[in-house]
Amino acid sequence: MRIITLANQKGGVGKTTTAINLATALAAIGERVLIVDLDPQGNASTGLGIDKEERTLSSYDVLADKIPLSEVAIQTVVPNLWIVPSTMDLLGVEMEIAALPDRTTRLKSALGDAQDLFSYVLVDCPPSLNLLTINAMAAADSVLVPLQCEFFALEGLSQLLRTVEMVRQTINPQLIIQGIVLTMYDGRNNLANQVVDDVRAHMGDKVYETVIPRNVRISEAPSHGKPAILYDLKCSGSQAYLQLATEVIRRERRLKAA
């Protein structure tokens, strides 16, 4: 089982969209995939058609009460794809577990019990570097960073990389950066092209070749409770996420072989 955490402390960078569509692409080739929604806003859950009434158990219960993942995971509309949904209860979980000795490794323990159930786990983090994100990084094999093609992209990236390094030194020495995926790219925008060049210059082959374009069909899909890949397979955004999934799988195979 490979655990990939999707993290960026900036909101609106395409993190949840990337989690949903990457998970769908992996499930489509036969992998058994679990998304853990650790964002109190619950956008990954909503984007996969999980109504609030269905979320009787959530990632809050996994972290606060140690309820097994197998009891919380819900089958989505996508074959081979499950989700541990999120609720607003997560807003209070940090205070509840802050004084506990295992406060940073509760998700890791929960995922250890699900070792034989899934081949990939994608953890969708909140847009902040808090205890939820630390739990996600402590549990992960690698971190995938969605990065919006905008002016402050590199500034936010350096802060995130420092957090990854801190987790690696204190909690999870095996943690690596799986890759950086550039999102919301508009080729007509000179600034977007400059950001792409700058990020590639700074981060080299950590940056995926695939760039996710700005695409209205990607924006529409969550309101229909579907991944973009199911909502409109032929749109440029869906095609880009399929290419990204191919790159992720290739990179994962290289990491396993190393």
TrEMBL record:
Show the stretches that span the lipid bilayer: none
AAA domain location, by residue?
A: 1-176
Q: Which SUPFAM superfamilies match?
A: P-loop containing nucleoside triphosphate hydrolases
Pfam families attached here? AAA_31
Write down the InterPro entries for this protein, in alphabetical order.
AAA_dom, DNA_Partitioning_ATPase, P-loop_NTPase
Primary role? Involved in chromosome partition. Localize to both poles of the predivisional cell following completion of DNA replication.
The protein's name in its UniProt record: Chromosome partitioning protein ParA
Q: Which organism is it from?
A: Tianweitania populi
